[in-house]
Specification:
Elements (H helix, E strand, L loop, with lengths): L8 E6 L2 E8 L2 E8 L6 H9 L5 E9 L4 E11 L6 E7 L9 E10 L2 E4 L3 E3 L2 E10 L4 E11 L14 E3 L4 E3 L5 E2 L2 E2 L3 E2 L16 E8 L5 E4 L2 E5 L2 E9 L4 E4 L3 E6 L4 E6 L4 H22 L7 E5 L6 E3 L2 E4 L1 H6 L6 H12 L1 H6 L1 E2 L5 H19 L1 H11 L19 H23 L1 H15 L3 E2 L1 H8 L8 H7 L25
Parallel strand pairs: 4-17, 23-24, 24-26, 27-28
Antiparallel strand pairs: 1-2, 2-3, 4-5, 5-11, 6-10, 6-14, 7-8, 7-11, 9-10, 12-13, 13-21, 15-16, 17-20, 18-21, 19-20, 22-23, 25-26
The chain binds zinc ion.
Zinc ion (ZN) binds next to helix 6.
Length: 503
Amino acid sequence: MLLLDAMNIKLFIAGSSVVIISIAAGLFFLFTLQSAPAASPEIQAAEAAKIIYPRYDLDIEIEYSSHLVRVAEKAGFLNTAGEPVNELVFSFPPAIYPDVMKLESVEIVRNNEKKSIAPEIDTSMIVISLDTPLAVHESIEVRFNFSLTLFQIFKTDLHPYGNYGYGSQVLQCGEFFPTLTPWVPGQGFRRWKYHKIGDPYLYPLADFNITINTSPDVVVAAYGQVSQDNGIWKFESPHSRSWAFTASPEYKVMAGGTEALPVKLFYVSQNARAVEACFKTALDSVTLFSELYGLYNKKELVVAENAYYSSMEYTGFITISGSHMETYTSAAPYLLVYITAHEVSHQWWYGSVGTDQLLEPWLDEGLATYSEYLFFKKYHSELAGAWLRTANQAMVPGHYIDDTIFDFDIRTRYFQTIYRLAPYFIYEISLAVGETTFQKFLHEFNIRQTDTFASGADFFRILREFSSADFTALGVKYFRRPPDALKAETSSPMTRVEKGVSS
Ligand SMILES: [Zn+2]
């Protein structure tokens, strides 16, 4: 919106142009200006960082009984990269299953002109080469129409295979629509090969607006619900890294938390103790991690029981293993409690601080798993010892914690390296630094790296402001390429004041 209040100016708005006629001191001026909506803070930040900030509008139909999901998607963005864009790259994991995903049409809209295209599909990547480069400050929208005929998943299935599918009681869809990959200045949108181990995705921030149409008996669990009426559900998830949903006609809801931070658990389990334990763990962990790392920055936390063995994080939304709900007993609480605390902590180590989950999976998974230990120490001290025994493993021959997901072809080796050794490395660092100082560092790391893609180098650079200890031996033990920052510093650590960091 453009506001001008000078007395001698009148505005006439015609189409997208604003005509200004000024009659002052007998002079007559005519200017034609192109109107421009005020840029959102996200667009301004993208412009400053020379990256791209997309917006997704999804119209989803769920035919629950036939496990069919139809999606009409509009993915749009303004070119804030500061350079022309020649090629668009979307990550679309269902594209690896031709029996599941049917791409009906892809259209590009530029300057109000629509054009059908046939994109290149390379495993989970959709690549669109533009005939004419997208100029700086030019907008583009890509419209996808596709359907997913979901396959059946079971409580033994593991991520990423079961990220979308249907179980006996729950249908789930994560990473199920095309999302733009991160823009790398001077290089373009990133491309990678889908990998069946780890989380083969990257999450640049974006706005998501979703409408779901389904039968009235189906309950949809997702972050950002704004309305629900007779099978039509609307969600808004601004400034988010992803959006996902689960659905079930059998979902019941447990709700609590505070007015400022409501927490909801959607569940199908008959195991009442598991439901209570999961809900309490979610509530306690979002409270604890807000204290430790910095305030949770979403308007609600939504937790949903899923249909497979894994659990998964999305913005404001986590899904918890239906298997762990089933097997929970108060005498054997470990699995359900640790996984719930783990997924909640990803709201910081993934949601707030983005990381490269392809090339540095140790960073977010190491921190999320280390967060389990902090949770146990506070709320279940009897389980903290079990966590330490579980994490303190022998190195996996041939692997180091700085390996990429592509370096692993055996899932158990990935799991032991990234979910056991990486958090134990972080634990050992915390002992060397002092646990209180280390917690101050984690808080600072979150605050300084909020809304970024942080790297291991960022982690160690900020850590060095809190400690000059010699971590050389830890670097050699855990890293294929030990970071220089782990070597002893000759000078004393710089304080936050010396670094000019505001509190
Ligand atoms: Zn995790």
